[in-house]
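Example protein as discussed:

>
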Amino acid sequence: MSKIKAIVMAGGKGTRMKSNLPKVLHKVYDRCIIDYVCDACENAGINDIYVIVGHKHELVENNLHGRDNVKCILQKEQLGTGHAALQARDYIEDDDLILIVNGDMPLISPYTIKSFISFIELGNFDGALVSAVFDKTPAYGRIIRDSHGNLSKIVEQKDCNEEELAIEEVNIGLYCFKGKHLKESFDKLDNNNAQKEYYITDIPYHIIASGGRIGVYMIQNSDETQGINSRSDLSIVTKTLLHNTREQHMDNGVTLIDPDNTYISLGVSIGKDTIIYPGTNIQGETMIGENCIIGPNSHIISSTIGDNTIVETSKLDRTSVGSNCKIGPFSIIGANTYIKDNVTVSSFTEIKE
């Protein structure tokens, strides 16, 4: 069975963000873009992740420090996406399956990654890419198919003619190739295009030209493929993430009094029959029990709360609260604080350590 490895493209400047931070370190609600992408790969069962870093690489490396299965590889010159993927060549074996994903797609799910890999394995393709159709076609490369409906090539928008620009099916920046074919294609890349860059989108063409088979996996939920190139894109992705998370909790039996004004991180667990009031932020790896009342305007960060507990307009930061407790209003419970069952913390109280 092939070993699956991931290459995450995270070396770009993100100039349209107009920021001193690398694009992948901007936050979607409470976590960096790159963290969502790496988590999706890990949760899909990929244990070897190579992150291609470039602009202000030290900051990205520091953010990823502590992830044992992530290795950062420096792209000293930004010469295009194909050149970025090439930096991981020394870590690619012929019988590997290499997933390549843009580092600015925080909504991509582990389920989609696993389904995509299964598509390649079941179809016995030498490589594949994910495509999507949007209500409004974004500035992505167009999928060009032959008369039989098979992939012919990908043309980046800046290189498209008028007929190609009219194509609605686009490449979203998620690929998978057999290691042997990927390495052979690296040697064939050139920068004969409008940007004078080495495009990763040329790799499928080279594999097809050498007699290989490339599949196209059209994703049904195009929301997952939303990339981030601007602050406007960041706000759209954040809104989508928060909406999806709220829906998931409500489907699991949690009451949100005003969903649009309730903010819940992706890693939060909440028990059924708990009620969350407006203005509440629940972040990090928080776990809340059943039949609790949280809010309004409470802020809970990476904390544990037992069953039947009320947290009224208070802040809990990396703390543990038992069952049948009442906190607040207007109390602050700081890090490394442990509150046992059946305890009341009165108004305007601060507890630390």
The CA atoms of residues 270 and 288 lie 5 Å apart.
